[in-house]
Amino acid sequence: MLPQIHKILYATDLSDPAKHALSYALSIAKQYQADLMLLHVIPDWARNISLSSGLDFATIYNEDAWLKIKDDVLRVSMKHAKERIESTYKNYKQELEAAGIATSVHVQTGHPVKTILQFANQADLIVMGTYGHSKLGSIFAGSVAQGVISKSTKPVLVVHLEKDGTEAPL
Fold first, then answer.
1. Second label for 128, Cα 20 to 30 Å away, from 25, 100, 114, 158?
2. CB neighbours of 122 closer than 8 A, spacing ≥ 6?
3. Which residues pair with 38 in a beta bridge?
4. Using CA atoms in the order 90, 91, 92, 98, what is the torsion angle rounded to 10 degrees?
5. CB neighbours of 156 closer than 8 A, spacing ≥ 6?
6. Sign of CA dihedral 79, 169, 165, 123
7. Which of 103, 101, 108 is nearest to 82 (CA)?
8. 74-84 burial code (b ≥16 CB/10 A, e <16)
9. Residue 73 CB contacts under 8 Å (≥ 6 apart), including other chains
10. CA-closest candidate to residue 154, choices 34, 42, 33, 44
11. Which pLDDT belongs to residue 52?
12. Which CATH number, 3.10.560.10, 3.20.20.20, 3.40.50.720, 3.40.50.620, labels domain 7-44+83-158?
């Protein structure tokens, strides 16, 4: 018996390879009439900066001020990430919903691999791009795709950016 795909998790870091992978996630969702969850994980930048710099910003700024700075930056970052995801797939949202395919956008903060794997518990397939992080992101996160592939109990479709650096038309 062939596996059933009812829900697809599309994990994005908002890079060009991730946009390229979106076209595959959309195509598979349409073919299988599968619901599509779009997920972006914002790494804990404050913790990473503190660790890499060796500074305890909560002590430097006082804990209340540091928490406010972190909360403000996180809130703005999450809002912008959600807007970018929605604008990337907005041309397809209506078509997908007309075909009875539910879509949902999720922006979370935390460790990218762990968060993707938590969301994967709700999915039958994970779709993501490779070479996806910006230079700054790769310093903090390493290879998210490799981490997901090695730890996932669900099938993972990893889509590479085309050799000439172009992406699939959206």
1. 100
2. 7, 9, 37
3. 10, 105
4. 100
5. 125, 126, 127, 128, 145, 148, 149
6. positive
7. 108
8. beeeeeebeee
9. 45, 46
10. 34
11. 54
12. 3.40.50.620
- The number of residues making up the chain comes to 170
**Which strands form 156-159's sheet, in the order they lie side by side?**
103-109, 35-42, 7-12, 125-129, 156-159
Domain spans of the chain, in order of start: 7-44+83-158
Which pLDDT score is estimated for 34?
95
Question: Per-residue pLDDT for the chain (170 aa), expressed as one digit of tens each?
Answer: 888 999 999 998 887 777 888 889 999 999 999 999 999 888 765 554 554 555 555 556 666 765 666 667 667 777 777 787 777 777 777 778 888 889 898 988 888 999 999 999 999 999 998 864 455 444 443 488 889 999 999 999 998 865 555 544 44
Written as six digits, the tokens of 88 are 């990337």
Amino acid at position 86, single letter: E
Residue 13, token pair as written in the block: 């870091």
